Amino acid sequence: MEPLTERDIRTSFVNCSKGETKRLNLPKDFTDSPWNDLDFLGWRDPGAPERAYLVAGHDGGLVGIALRVTSAASRGFTSRSMCSLCLTTHTSGGVALMTARRTGEAGRQGNSVGQYLCTDLACSLYARGKKQAAGDGAIEESLTPEEKIARTRTNLTAFVDKVIG
Ligand SMILES: [Zn+2]
Predict the structure, then answer these.
(1) Using one digit for the tens of pLDDT, what is the confidence trace for 56-70?
(2) Tens-place pLDDT, residues 125-137
(3) What's the CA-to-centroid distance between 85 and ligand 1, angstroms?
(4) What are phi and psi of 36, to 5 degrees?
(5) Strand 48-58 to strand 61-72: parallel, antiparallel, or no bridges (unpaired)?
(6) What does the pLDDT average to over 20-49?
(7) Gap from CA of 3 to ligand 1 centroid (Å)
(8) How far is CA 18 from the centre of its chain?
(9) Count of beta carbons in the 10 Å neighbourhood of residue 137
(10) What is the DSSP string of 70-106?
(11) Rounded distance from Cα 46 to ligand 1 centre (Å)
(12) Comparing C-alpha atoms, which of 127, 119, 148, 136 is closest to residue 52?
């Protein structure tokens, strides 16, 4: 993706208030992000661990989504969970259920969309093989990195559409 500025990020959010958008903490050193390897910028709020954010290109624009981290999916050390974006399998808390308030009337009525996501939101890097899931969670797949990237992007678009749709 194209490198983002702080202004790009703060003006991209579609599902939280202007006040929240102003207050949210950007990722540390985000200007050094490996933009060429990212399908979206995702991070946990360094000052509020139950909050996470992702910013992605969508329909020629930029869409930022605020997420609540509701729980770690893993129930025990040996259980595995899969991220619904990059389909990376993790052990012990590497995946968490995150919910996004939907935009517009649906959001005002309290509707949200929940997805199991990599807790570090580094899906782009897992898809490219630039980051490995901790432990022995990784399941070998016969897909090429290009196929995994395409799959991650498709899942990301579907998720964004559900939030703003
Ligand atoms: Zn993921």
Answers:
(1) 999 999 999 999 998
(2) 999 999 988 765 5
(3) 5
(4) -60, -25
(5) antiparallel
(6) 94
(7) 20
(8) 21
(9) 18
(10) EEES--STT-EEE-TTT--EEETTSEEEEEEEPSHHH
(11) 19
(12) 119
